[in-house]
């Protein structure tokens, strides 16, 4: 008994020493990861309002505005323990700050692929659900046409007959939610912790549906067939850079 | 007994170590701010507005707002007998029938200012521009006045009035020029009904047919962005718009979207006041849009290529809806009138 009593303080002390959570106990395993988004049109860089690009349907076009949401990011670990983000990111291709998606407490390790949505899932696609920033308010999809938010606003001009005309590819409503998948392996193991994603804008018009702005519709809003094709094509718009 | 004392003492020591050993992250002492006699001014934001942003170096106070209001109506800030209120008159929702000042309403929720967006940032930034570049305010006049030095000292706690303080006081008052009680606001709060014509106008406004909502988003009724809405086919002088700030040819003819709140009171319309009536404005969108290289893509909808093709009744309904944005509480608010 005496021995136990004499040992007890040591035991308590050891317990205390181990009870305080130290940063260094966590840091090596969980990191803040930046997913950096950039843009291309096949091999060309995105330069707003100037370069004319050609899509799979042969439309010659340029881009004036590109805004969208990315949500439900899941990083799939090779051992099936997935990292799931509940954040909804507003992205304006013109505003560099919005093109850095910061994910907190991401486990380091080897990942097999990434999935996410372009848009907002039905449980959260409700007008004024998001913080009322000016950007979010401008993305609201009018209640009279279903409510929620625009998932995508991609606008510009394209050559039409002998002149140019405008186009506005908008996605909204729950049926237009885009399910993206990037099937590249990658490893998060050393700082700076970041992965580079590229949106190839021509993919919006390419596969599985060759989308022609002239014949499939230069304005998608209110046209469920057009939005359906664009949303399906959206599955392939992102890839990892240098992979 | 001795071992019990020993145990007790050890436990107390251990618990003490335990209590004090874990590093706390949030117990840093906050440096107490100077005890202030100023009274905070609470500005309510409707649920359908963007978040209100007030710079930390210019908190909204009753005293600051009151000082800003006095300055707003006082010709002392100019050198030619002008005051802010001359071009921003309350009865016209703080615009003027003389072309063509943008209204001072709900600027607390905007971050782009003037028709061409010359100043982007906070109300403090635009007011600094107005005080220094537009009015060229002579602070000596304020410093030697009988009333202002005490008022500024109370708000800014300094013995000498600066142009920055003048700008900050004005920014505080303009932040309170909030129009949030129109018939449409009351409708959104379930406090009133719209007539069938007003409802029809709202549906036109907020769907693809009238398609006003893409730029004049519900809430502020602007989108805090720049667009070419097709009023010109060639661009010279002020009609070059945003180009005059950026010198980017892609910005030719683009202007900040004006808010449509109180639009019934803010004639004439467009940056140069070229349209006298709301009917003129609607007719522009209905049939007179000029196709130029920078025309906003939204104007090219196939069904809109030859204008919105609104019927006479559609136009009446649209105007009826626009008039529900008139806020008589705002234009009669004694807290915003000449002190």
Number of helices, where a helix is a run of at least 4 consecutive DSSP H or I residues of chain B: 13
- CATH class annotation of the largest domain in chain B: Mainly Alpha
Cα Rg of chain A: 23 Å
Overall CATH architecture of the largest domain in chain B: Orthogonal Bundle
Kindly name the structural category of chain A: alpha+beta
Strand order of the largest sheet of chain B: 1-2
| Whole-number total of structural domains of chain B | 2
C-alpha termini separation of chain A? 66 Å
Query: Mean pLDDT across all residues of chain A, rounded?
Result: 89
Main beta sheet of chain A, described? 9 strands, antiparallel
Radius of gyration of chain B: 27 Å
Give me the oligomer status: heterodimer
Q: How many individual β-strands of chain B?
A: 4
What portion of residues of chain A belong to β-strands? 35-45%
Instruction: Tell me, briefly, the overall form of chain B.
Output: globular
Strand content of chain B: under 5%
Show unreliable segments of chain A.
Answer: 21-28
CATH fold-level assignment of the largest domain in chain B: Cytochrome Bc1 Complex, Chain D, domain 2
From the N-terminal CA to the C-terminal CA of chain B, the straight-line distance is 82 Å
Structural class of chain B: mainly alpha
Keywords:
heterodimer, A: 243 residues, alpha+beta, 39% strand, B: 339 residues, mainly alpha, Cytochrome Bc1 Complex, Chain D, domain 2, 4 strands, 35% helix
How would you summarize the topology of this molecule?
The complex is a heterodimer of chains A (243) and B (339).
Chain A: H1 2-19, H2 23-26, E1 30-41, E2 44-45, E3 53-54, E4 60-77, E5 83-84, E6 88-92, E7 100-107, E8 109-118, H3 134-138, E9 152-160, E10 163-171, E11 178-182, E12 186-188, E13 194-200, H4 224-233, E14 238-240
Parallel strand pairs in A: 1-13
Antiparallel strand pairs in A: 1-2, 1-7, 3-4, 4-5, 4-6, 4-8, 4-9, 8-11, 8-12, 9-10, 13-14
Chain B: H1 2-21, H2 62-72, H3 84-87, E1 112-113, E2 119-120, H4 123-134, H5 139-143, H6 148-156, H7 163-175, H8 183-188, H9 196-205, E3 226-227, H10 243-246, E4 255-256, H11 278-287, H12 312-323, H13 328-331
Antiparallel strand pairs in B: 1-2, 3-4
Helix pairs in contact in B: 2-7, 4-7, 9-12, 11-12
